[in-house]
Specification:
Layout lengths: L5 H9 L6 H12 L7 H14 L3 E5 L5 H10 L2 E6 L2 H13 L6 E5 L2 H9 L8 E6 L6 H8 L3 E10 L19 H15 L4 E6 L5 E6 L6
Parallel strand pairs: 1-2, 1-4, 2-3, 4-5
Antiparallel strand pairs: 5-7, 6-7
Helix pairs in contact: 3-4, 6-7
Bound molecules: S-adenosylmethionine (SAM).
Length: 223
């Protein structure tokens, strides 16, 4: 189910002006191929958050075809490193980034983000730390992604996670009547409890798109 009222979402989507024509084309391509990319209302929220935060460096976990990475680079001029585990999807992201002319701003890395992040952390310098980490990959690994993101974050960095309400299932079992997603739901609930209970982070959960958590990290890497 949609976590937001259909009529309200449709109305908000009529206000969506999109990004540049080339990114609109990439959104249309992803939607046609049923590649899950950030929803329009989530995109609007994240772009304005980034405009307020004005990050220099953003790390994304889960590139898919490169849509959100290019969107962030275009929308706020930051440099984006994005990680994609699936080889074919990584190659599509890479060619989209090149064909759309974002290769000076967007770097696509291939591999399981848990390994790639460990490698990024080894020997990272102060200047290479990230202002924002956007987690948008396998939901059952969100806690691992979070823990691995911390040493990569500057103080006062934002960690933003998408899909945390899982079509309402995080809030109530009634949205998973056949208990198909029991384990993912349990893991997501544990993750939310974890991040909302940390003394070094301030977290809020917004019912936008499929649920977005926004956390401000006060003592990154020093926990
Ligand atoms: C929801 S899509 C990302 C959408 C993209 N952020 C956007 O909005 O354009 C999630 C992607 O994460 C990738 N993924 C899943 N688990 C991963 C992992 N452990 N490491 C890296 N990528 C992963 C999937 O292959 C998939 O392409």
């Amino acid at each position: 189910m949609n976590i937001t009222n259909k009529i309200i979402t449709s109305y908000i989507n009529t206000l969506y002006t999109g990004s540049s024509p080339k990114l609109n084309e990439l959104r249309a391509f992803a939607e046609e191929k049923r590649v899950p990319i950030i929803l329009k209302d989530t995109e609007g929220l994240l772009l304005n958050l980034l405009r307020i935060k004005r990050p220099e460096r953003l790390l994304e976990i889960g590139a898919a075809v490169g849509y959100s990475a290019c969107c962030f680079a275009e929308g706020c001029g930051c440099s984006v490193t994005t990680i994609e585990a699936d080889k074919e999807t990584y190659e599509t992201a890479l060619s989209n980034v090149q064909n759309l002319g974002f290769d000076d701003k967007v770097k696509v890395l291939h591999g399981d983000a848990r390994e790639v992040m460990e490698n990024l952390a080894s020997g990272i310098s102060e200047e290479e730390l990230y202002d924002v980490v956007f987690i948008d990959a396998a939901k059952s690994h969100y806690k691992a992604f979070w823990d691995l993101a911390l040493p990569l974050c500057k103080d006062d960095a934002l960690i933003i996670c998408d899909n945390v309400l899982m079509k309402g299932m995080t809030a109530s079992d009634e949205y998973d009547p056949n208990k198909k997603y029991k384990t993912s739901i349990r893991k997501m609930r544990e993750f939310i409890k974890y991040i909302t209970g940390l003394d070094y982070a301030d977290t809020c959960i917004l019912p936008v798109g499929d649920g977005v958590s926004i956390s401000v990290i006060r003592k990154a890497g020093k926990v």
